[in-house]
Amino acid sequence: MMSSSSDECGNYRNNDEAAASSSQNKYKGIRRRKWGKWVSEIRVPGTPERLWLGSYATPEAAAVAHDVAFYCLRGNSSPKNLNFPLVLPAGARVGMSPRSVQKAASDAGLAIDARLSDGKSSQRRSGEEYLDISVEDYL
C-alpha cells in the first residue's frame, strides 16, 4: 500500500515522489536524469540563453560546476546561492565569456567526479565516506 502526504496547499503526492524530489533538491542548479546522471545548466544574465554545464556521475560534481558558473556570471554578490561557497577555483573570475565559463565549470565538475570516483574505490577499502575538495582539484 502506498502512502501519501499533503503539502501546505493541500496537494497530495506519493511519499516516494517526495523523497525523490528532496534528494534532487539537496544542491542548487542541478537535476537528475531518469537514467541517474546529474546535470547542470544556468541562465546567462540579461539574455534568454541557457549555458549547458555538463552531465556528471555525482550530484556534488554538478553542484560545483553550477557554483563556478554562477560565480563567474554573477560575481560574489550572493554567496548564499552557492552550494560550496568556500570552494571556488583560483581561475574563476567575474567577466569571463560564456564559452570560458562553460569550460571552467565543466572542468571543475569533471575534476570533482574524478576525485569522488577515486574516493569511492578507496572508500570501499576503508569503509569511510568523505568529500575532500580543494581548490587544486579544479586546476
UniProtKB/TrEMBL annotation:
Signal peptide (from-to): none
Biased composition (Acidic residues): 129-139
Annotated ranges, domain AP2/ERF: 26-85
InterPro entries named among the record's database cross-references: AP2/ERF_dom, AP2/ERF_dom_sf, AP2/ERF_TF_ERF_subfamily, DNA-bd_dom_sf
Keywords of the record: Activator, DNA-binding, Nucleus, Transcription, Transcription regulation
Localization terms from the record: Nucleus
Gene Ontology cellular component annotations, sorted alphabetically: nucleus
Lineage top rank: taxon: Eukaryota
Entries under SMART domains matching the protein: AP2
Chief location category: nucleus
One Gene Ontology MF term: DNA-binding transcription factor activity
Region (Disordered), start-end ranges: 1-32, 116-139
PANTHER family linked to this entry: ETHYLENE-RESPONSIVE TRANSCRIPTION FACTOR ERF020, ETHYLENE-RESPONSIVE TRANSCRIPTION FACTOR ERF042-RELATED
Protein family (similarity comment): Belongs to the AP2/ERF transcription factor family. ERF subfamily.
Name recorded for this polypeptide: AP2/ERF domain-containing protein
